[in-house]
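User: Design a sequence. Structure:
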């Protein structure tokens, strides 16, 4: 579940020491809300056993293995070997659906550090390494540090049971403030529904999503992928284009600081308004899509003197971050800072 980096339009304004709610050290999966069940095609899945209201934190899980992005087969195997028996069993029980890597340089390195007397069992050892690696590739989640610079990959065995949908009903994200992976309901979920998260950026059109999902070795059968409605695919393509344009213009604006005119800001804002309308229409109400667009919209609306829009979007951004990530996330704090700023600007506009 290596999630690609979302475009950074949020311009972080808080530091590592920003005040946040005290960390909650608990690690839990809300087994009172869901149960694991075998599915016909996707292995074990998690199914709601009761109504789960939008915004509910269903998982708040500590990793059993977390390694730097660049770690390879040998480091991973050593980490799994070092687990206690219970966690080791959790690890080996996870699904392995990726193919063996074509890069086999690690096998030579392993041979060099093995004693002569294990030569008979060396092939078995290689196979074990490959299985451990396939489990890792199939189930790992991206974990970014608070400054967003350092990327690690972690295994969270309970959350790893979540299957994929391109129209997900839950949202997952590693929260570096509390060192937990959190999974929240994106909308009200009814008893019997499978809890589905997206392993990839949901803004891509179907062809691109299929390509990305090959990594996990399955063909997605979600409502978006199987929809006979070409219009839906066209709208996702439009969203992807608009998100890319927003990101590109943001980069150019940062480069040309000071040279951006009122007209340029208006053009930026027009793209964001289109993006917000489409995302709202599609119900893609999560932090990496609509949350990101609202935050970018607030800053630009302030620049061009649309204070009321800025305030409206800032309020919505706060609600999206609360729903997707919770009040102990940096994203929620940043959205709160934007809201404070939008309120100040509005109060000033009303006075003048
Ligand atoms: Zn799909």
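Assistant: Done.
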């Amino acid at each position: 579940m290596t999630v690609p980096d979302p475009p950074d339009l949020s311009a972080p304004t808080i530091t590592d020491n920003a005040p946040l709610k005290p960390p909650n050290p608990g690690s839990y999966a809300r087994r009172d809300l869901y149960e694991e069940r075998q599915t016909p095609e996707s292995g074990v899945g998690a199914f709601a056993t009761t109504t789960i209201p939008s915004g509910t934190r269903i998982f708040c899980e500590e990793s059993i293995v977390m390694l730097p992005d660049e770690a390879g087969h040998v480091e991973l195997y050593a980490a799994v070997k070092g687990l206690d028996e219970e966690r080791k069993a959790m690890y080996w029980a996870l699904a392995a659906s990726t193919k063996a890597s074509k890069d086999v340089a690690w096998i030579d390195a392993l041979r060099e550090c093995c004693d002569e007397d294990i030569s008979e069992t060396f092939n078995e050892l290689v196979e074990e390494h490959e299985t451990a690696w396939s489990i890792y590739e199939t189930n790992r989640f991206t974990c970014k540090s608070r400054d967003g610079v350092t990327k690690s990959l972690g295994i969270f065995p309970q959350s790893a049971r979540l299957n994929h949908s391109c129209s997900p009903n839950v949202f997952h994200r590693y929260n570096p403030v509390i060192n937990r992976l959190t999974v929240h309901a994106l909308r009200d979920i009814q008893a019997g529904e499978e809890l589905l998260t997206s392993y990839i950026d949901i803004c891509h059109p179907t062809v691109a999503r299929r390509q990305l999902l090959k990594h996990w070795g399955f063909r997605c059968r979600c409502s978006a992928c199987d929809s006979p409605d070409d219009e839906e695919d066209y709208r996702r393509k439009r969203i992807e284009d608009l998100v890319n344009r927003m990101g590109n213009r943001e980069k150019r604006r940062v480069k040309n600081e000071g040279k951006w005119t009122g007209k340029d800001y208006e053009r930026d804002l027009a793209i964001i308004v289109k993006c917000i309308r489409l995302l709202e229409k599609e119900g893609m109400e999560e932090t990496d899509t609509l949350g990101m667009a609202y935050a970018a919209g607030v800053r630009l609306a302030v620049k061009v003197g649309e204070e009321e829009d800025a305030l409206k979007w800032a309020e919505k951004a706060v609600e999206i971050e609360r729903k997707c990530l919770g009040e102990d996330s940096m994203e929620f704090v940043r959205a709160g800072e934007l809201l404070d700023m939008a309120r100040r600007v509005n109060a000033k506009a009303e006075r003048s």
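The CA atoms of residues 32 and 289 lie 30 Å apart. The pocket of zinc ion is lined by residues 165-166, 209, 220, 222, 224-225 (CB under 6 Å).
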